[in-house]
Amino acid sequence: MKNNKRWPHTVLALSLLLISFSSKAQFYLGIEGGWNYNHLHTSVGYREFTKYENVNGYTIGIPEQYQVNNWLAIRSGLSFIQKNYQLTRTHYYSGVYHKSTNNYLQLPVAGNFIFGTPRIKGFVNLGGYIGYWMSTNNKGVSFAPYFQSDPSGDNYGILPNNEPHQYNEKYAFDSRKDRRVELGWLAGGGVSYEFAQKYRLFIEYRYYHAITDQQKSYSINQIPRYNETGVIQVGCLFRLGRYQSSTESAYSK
Amino acid sequence: MKTSSCNNISFTPAFLLLVLCAASSCRKDMPELNTPEKYVAGNLSEEFDAFWNGMNNNYMFWDVDPTDWNEVYRKYDPLFSDLDMRDSSDVRKAYTYFEEMTGDLVDGHFYLTFYNKYLRDENGRPLGIYPLRERHKRDDEYHEVNSLFRTLYSSVIPDNYLSSYQGGDYVINENGSIKPSPNTVRNDFLTGMIKGTNILYFRCHQFRIMHVLSDIPDSHAAVAVKYFLEHLSDPAVEGIIIDMRGNVGGQIRDLNGFISSLVDKPTHFGYTRQKIGNNRLDYGPWVPVSLQPNEHSTAISVPIVVLADVNSISMGEVTVMAIQSLPNGKFVGERTWGGIGGAIANNRDIANAGQFRTSFFSVFTPYIELRDKSKISAEGIGITPDVAVGYDEDAVADGRDPQLEEAMRVIQ
């Protein structure tokens, strides 16, 4: 538990480190935000009338970009991102569901491969990320089998025949099973528009692919769970430091 | 320089992509999980696989069970691989392995039945493994429900403690229907007023109360239940004793249909939870359980004492838990069985947990878990009485019931 509490500080320190390295070149700092769609890569095994569903979330962050040369930049920055999913029962069990809203603090580090004109550029991101699972809220409908609201069984469905229980509560992490740190790779691309020699507006799509299981390995034949998150976001980068034109940077070596 | 830049442009992203693809292979594969019922019979190694995985996915109590289920797999998987189902001694050896594997399971309902021709008792009935019963038997204070114990209800209590009583027996047919027993011998349901007092007494051997009232309403058993319910609102009643000793559990609907008659407003007494995934610790939220007033409910302020003992199990223990949580409730007797677990369903799909089987064995285990208001598990442990009074075999043989006498003393 103690080690988990140090992770946000580590992530923050790494961010500041990135800023310090970039003090003399073209360095950008900004703000970004957007909408995401998470898919939990897992299996329901042989569970009948049970499925996992993708759920929307949002992301907001402080991007940083270190311009190495006119075609390559290093992109990083801290972001808050939700990776949500829902477990849904169907048919006779309709109405029973469990929606998990999972909040992560994430630090991506990616190569930004840039092409285009001085003002309008396209870019492709490739890299990795580390994330920290901060909190979860669970919302859903279950049932209390000790309450049979319709003992006759004349109504069809698990909920008409049992008292539904609605819940919306914070999840208490279980150190035996919950892996709080997530690693993965990312890929994406987008378009940016630079103006006033200082600002870059951008819109991009990014895909995060976790390679670490949401759970620790505590059981043989355990079903793993991996987040796969697609993000569409917009943002603005603000250049810090001395301006270098693209022509100047190409021949700076 | 430009050429070098062009090479970098094409090389670097390709290299990164290769590294990222390699990193993706770090992911674990999805395990192959098969419904236990679909396993093809004829191989003891396969039967072990079905059992181990069935428990891994469907058992409710991994949160508190001390059994190292991974170690069980590592130890017994190779052992079962060496066994031949056509060899009777190998099949019996498999039985001992199952005993060892399940010996410490906390589930008070867990019962493993075998259907192989080599695993029969002297009467030809399938052998079974009931871990908690075996552990109870090793306890010096354990006493079985024997013929002497049954005399408590056939003669000791009705003859020596009740001024007037109603009692009745019933029989459950193979198809699940119910019919009155021609003779009242056991007093499956027994009620009356304690001699010389206004203490109302009720006992049921099993929770089939609503079943009896609906299907055999004119039977002696039904009359006994109605007598009790009618006298609940009698202002002369100075206390109530609900006797759950030897109660084997029964139908959940009796909680709301009968036990809830003791309260006139919703009364929270515990929590249940279910599995929401295949992995051992995939639990859903805790759902509060309350007694909900019914048509017979009345405001009861007099003391309510529940009598229970080591053979009170399942709904018998739920009743103890519910009454003990009441401000005017007390539990007198012995620590209960430890099978509070929860409901058993024939359909595992209800909560994606619970019973499973192959052609070789069947596992009887709950699909939900029940705990008291503090959410501390008493599974395999039992509920502790407020007033501890042990079973006195000699006293019963002499026609006395010290546990009932203590319950009366608590009320008075």
* Oligomer classification: heterodimer
Structural class of chain A: mainly beta
Helix proportion of chain B: 25-40%
* Main sheet properties of chain B: 7 strands, mixed
Biggest chain pair contact, residues each?
A-B, 56 and 54 residues
| Helix amount of chain A | under 10%
Would you identify the regions of chain B where 5 or more consecutive residues have pLDDT less than 50?
1-10
Number of strands of chain B: 16
Query: For the CA atoms, what is the radius of gyration of chain A?
Result: 23 Å
Mean pLDDT of chain A: 87
Order of helices and strands of chain A: HEEEEEEEEEEH
Distance between the termini of chain B: 102 Å
Averaging pLDDT over every residue of chain B, what do you get?
91
pLDDT below 50 for ≥5 consecutive residues: which ranges of chain A? Answer: 1-5, 20-24, 246-253
Q: What structural class is derived from the secondary structure elements of chain B?
A: alpha/beta
Order of helices and strands of chain B: HHHHEEHHEEEEEHHEHEEEHEEEEEHH
Number of helices of chain B: 12
Overall shape of chain B: globular
Q: What is the distance, rounded to the nearest whole angstrom, between the alpha carbons of the first and last residues of chain A?
A: 48 Å
For the largest beta-sheet of chain A, the strand count, sense and barrel status come to: 10 strands, antiparallel
